[in-house]
Amino acid sequence: MHSTANSLTVTDLSFAYPNGHEVLDGLSLSVHSGERVALLGPNGAGKTTFALHLNGVLELQRGSINVNDIPLNEENLGEIRRRVGMVFQNADDQLFMPSVREDVAFGPANLGLDKAQQAERVAEALAAVDASDFAERTPHHLSGGEKRRVAIATVLAMHPDLLVLDEPTSGLDPAGRRELTNLLKSLPLTQLIITHDLPLALELCPRSVIISGGRVVADGPTEELLSDTQLLAQHRLELPYGFSPVVAGPAT
Amino acid sequence: MAGAHRHLLLHTDSPLHRIAPEAKIVGTFLFAVGVALTPRRAVWAFAIDAVVVLSLLAIAGYRPRQALTRFAAVLPFVAFAVFIPFIAGGDKTDLFGLSLSTEGLWASWNVIAKSVLGTGASLILAGTTPISEVVRGLGRLRMPPIVVSIVAFMFRYLDLIVEEMGRMRVAMTARGHDPRWLWQAKPIASAAGAMFVRSYERGERVHSAMLARGFSGTMPQMEHEPASPTDWARSLTPPVVSISLALVALIIL
Amino acid sequence: MLLALHAPDGFLSAPVAFATAFISVVIVGAALRQSGRELKDKQVPLAGIAAAFIFAAQMFNFPVASGTTGHLLGGALAAILLGPATGALVVTIVVVVQALLFADGGLSALGYNVLNMAIVTSFGGYAVFLLARKLMPRNAGGIVGAAGLAAAASVVLSAMAFSVEWLFGATAPIDFDNVFTAMVGVHLLIGVGEGLISALAIGAVLASRPDLVYGVRDLKRSTFADRTPVPMRTFVAGGILAAVVMATVVSQFAVDSPDGLETVAEDTGFADQATDHALDSSIFADYATTGVANESVSLAIAGFSGGAISLAVGYGLFLTMGPRRRSESRETATV
Ligand SMILES: Nc1ncnc2c1ncn2[C@@H]1O[C@H](COP(=O)(O)OP(=O)(O)OP(=O)(O)O)[C@@H](O)[C@H]1O
Ligand SMILES: [Mg+2]
Fold it and tell me: How far apart are CA B215 and CA A106, in angstroms?
């Protein structure tokens, strides 16, 4: 493995919430540039907690994080936040401005871009998620799927190197899920997709990582992991009824 | 529960929709001030103000029924005014076989006339201005940024909280909770507390989301077209009318 | 409730509307400066969400007695949770937005509505909260009790403030004493509800996130571990007892006044006014209606209630904005 091509390197990350709850326990993981990796694991495994570390929302307690060989620390925080685009588990937490346009412009404005550049970024990001039509609408009144797409646009507008999505398909109808899958496929970015949707992992991500009890318990080709019924059962993961990873075939 | 507080925007287009929000906000306020200054006995002045309000409601695109239902929402607030003639002192007037206080009747008329006109003004503003525009207008009126941000966040999360409270209500009712007396209110109160914690934790998550997109403490100022002189001229016409009427009435009465 | 404190347009005379608007702008301006210092960037979204919460809470009807309902004002609750300055600011924003876009309360009545519903409730309520805390045990039960008293008192203070404003800006010949008794009487009842709901709400927040309660920043977390649950019955009994005591005190003033106040008003105030049309129709006519009519009694009561309100509000203002600033230890624990 050539470490220069690593988009993300996490080493020995441990974290406890202030109430003493230990959530991450020596987690290590690296993701290559351009790779799409699924992060699987039961409820409460620490996936969201892990994701919140990736752009410094939660402070490092132990271990280290490198994004494109830049270490995450106080000094590089701004740069890391630009490079890592976080799409939150609940889109309502992410979309807080009065209109979609302003919400997408929020990140670029914080980067210090001027109005013309901001407008350009907004147009481009909304076009990428096929949401140009809702620019003037209020985020609250969008449907779940539309919200999710706009949430992705808000981070695309920052031109990130790494996209981290926390349960991007939860609450979407099958058509919405399909649109989102196609969208993610079309984005030429390194992606870390946290999900409970195992077929989605299989379709999008050649590689999967299972987190359980705050550490990585399995890391390998998605098709292989999903075929290991014992491993899945051990970590409270279940394929949908009648779904066979072998028949469905791996990601392309 | 939430019905009366839903935003009242009319999803149509009208010349009023196109006026810059800051001009409309100022115009609405000043119009209400003019009405408030008008002496109660200047019935003709209120009549002219009413013509202004009705025309603007029509221009805004309100259908009569729609406007009436929205006016009805303020009834509880003026209901007290109806009692004034019964409890006020002073000379009495016989009306419908009742002996009512003359001054009280005028006071009652004063409150009802002024609040109906004020409500009309606020309906015109609310009907033609999306919330996001209102927030922008406040910003352009040089309201302190902290106030503008609080208003923006408030609107963003109001509906979510109301809906969540509604769901909690339904969940309680579904399990047979039908409070009639104060001491049965405990579940509601605890729910309110839980709601606060939930709202607050949501605030923390929102803050994380802002940090994740490079927020460093100040909200970026979003550019938009300032109000044109025509916008100001249009918005200030109704207040010029109501204030002039008030002054004329004060002089001649 | 009929006498919700969202007063409509034209309820008080124009001079009083302007005067209260001036007072409100000055105090909210000071609160703004204070909360600008208190709110870290993190707390701006939180304050906005708290505003949404108070807005929604004002739609939260609670039962008072069979069939009748009241709704929360939330000023004291906001002050205890966010601090009086931010609390007043947040409730002011709610009141202004309600008037501007939802026609809840008149636009020209904003001066007195903000003063009564946001400023008096937040600063007055917070002052009562701090006083009550001194009398109560330093544990969760004591805090919850103090919050309840403060919230109940804030509603009554608000009603008293309205009555005092009526003294100066009456728009109808109704005696100050009657307005005072009616307003305070009705709001005692609402106040009991406000107190109960606020107390329980604070209790719920203390149970899960005590770090979010501004009013207990000086206490250690372990303090709240000691939770002796107060039975609902005791709560209501206490509230009603407090209400009865207050009602007795208030009605004492009405009883003390010579009977036939209305006759006096008719004889002196309105007999004159009725003949003087020029004065009657001027905006200043209302100014002197009842206040002058029964000077001695009105002034005594006005002095009492005005004093109580200013003391409470002043104490609240002093505690938060005065030089005796406390150290900041409000950064929340998580994230
Ligand atoms: N702010 C917090 N304070 C204390 N504990 C927390 C906090 N947030 C999460 N936890 C705890 O940390 C653990 C991991 O939570 P996390 O949200 O990271 O799980 P997750 O893997 O994302 O689960 P899910 O699949 O349900 O989203 C859980 O046990 C949770 O209760
Ligand atoms: Mg999660």
Answer: 8
Mean of the per-residue pLDDT values for chain C?
70
Burial of residue C230 (number of CB atoms within 10 Å: 0-12, 13-18, 19+): middle
Find out whether A102 and B222 touch, Cβ atoms under 8 Å.
yes
C-alpha span between B212 and B204 (Å, rounded): 12
Measured N-to-C along each axis, helices C232-256 and C140-169 cross at an angle, to the nearest 10 degrees, of 30
Question: What range does the domain containing C301 cover?
Answer: 14-334
Closest in B32, B76, B153 to C106, CB measured: B32
Interface contact B114-C49, CB threshold 8 A:
no
Cα of first residue to Cα of last residue in chain B, in angstroms, is 45
Count of domains forming chain A: 1
Q: Which of B213, B215, B219 to mutate to test the interface with A (most CBs of A within 10 A)?
A: B213
Asked whether residue A202 is domain-assigned, the answer is yes
Name the token pair of C59.
């739609």
For residue C253, what pLDDT band results from cuts at 50, 70 and 90? very low
**Residue A219 lies inside a defined structural domain of this protein:** yes
CATH code at position A49: 3.40.50.300
Q: What is this model's ipTM?
A: 0.87
Torsions phi, psi for C129 (to 5 deg): -60, -45
C108 pLDDT higher than 50 = yes
Q: Count other C-beta atoms under 10 Å from residue B207's C-beta.
A: 24
A227-245 exposure pattern, b = at least 16 Cβ within 10 A, e = fewer: eeeebbeebebebeeeeeb
B164 closest CA partner among B118, B130, B197: B197
Q: What is the spatial distance between Cα C59 and Cα C50, in angstroms, rounded to a whole number?
A: 14
Q: How many domains does chain C have?
A: 1
Size of the A and C interface in Cβ pairs below 8 Å: 9
Return the minimum-mean-pLDDT range out of A222-236, C111-125, C158-172. Answer: C158-172
Q: Which among B37, B90, B193 has the least Cβ separation from residue C274?
A: B90
Q: Kindly list the protein residues whose Cβ atom lies closer than 6 A to any atom of ligand 1.
A: A 17, 19, 21, 23, 41, 43-49; C 334
The answer to whether the beta carbons of residues C88 and C319 sit under 8 Å apart is no
**Which pLDDT does position C288 carry in this prediction?**
33
Name every residue whose Cβ is closer than 8 Å to that of residue A236 and which is 6 or more positions away in sequence.
A42, A43
Q: How far apart are CA C3 and CA B36, in angstroms?
A: 21
Rounded Cα–Cα distance for residues B88 and A246 (Å) = 86
For residue A234, tell me if it sits in a domain.
Answer: yes
Residue C3 lies inside a defined structural domain of this protein:
no
Any domain includes C8: no
pLDDT of B152 strictly over 90: no
**Which residues 73-132 on chain A approach chain C with CB closer than 8 angstroms?**
96
DSSP A190-251: EEEEE-S-HHHHHHH-SEEEEEETTEEEEEEEHHHHHH-HHHHHHTT--PPTT--HHHH---
Q: Do residues C103 and B74 make contact, with C-beta atoms less than 8 angstroms apart?
A: yes
The CATH number of whichever domain residue C133 belongs to comes to 1.10.1760.20
Q: Does residue A113 sit within a domain?
A: no
In a domain, C305, yes or no: yes
Q: Which residues face C271 on adjacent strands?
A: none
Distance CA A22, CA A6 (A): 28
Range(s) of the domain holding residue A215: 6-90+161-248
Ligand 2 is an ion; its neighbours by CB within 5 Å are A 48
CA A166–ligand 2 middle distance (angstroms): 7
Nearest atom, ligand 1, residue A45 CA: 21
- Tell me how far apart the alpha carbons of residues A167 and A87 are, in angstroms, rounded to a whole number: 9
- Count of CB atoms within 10 A of residue A46's CB? 22
Q: What is the pLDDT of residue B53?
A: 92
Residue C296 maps to a domain: yes
C246 or C85, which is more confident: C85
What's the rounded mean pLDDT across residues A221-238? 91
What pLDDT, on a 0 to 100 scale, did the predictor assign at position C65? 52
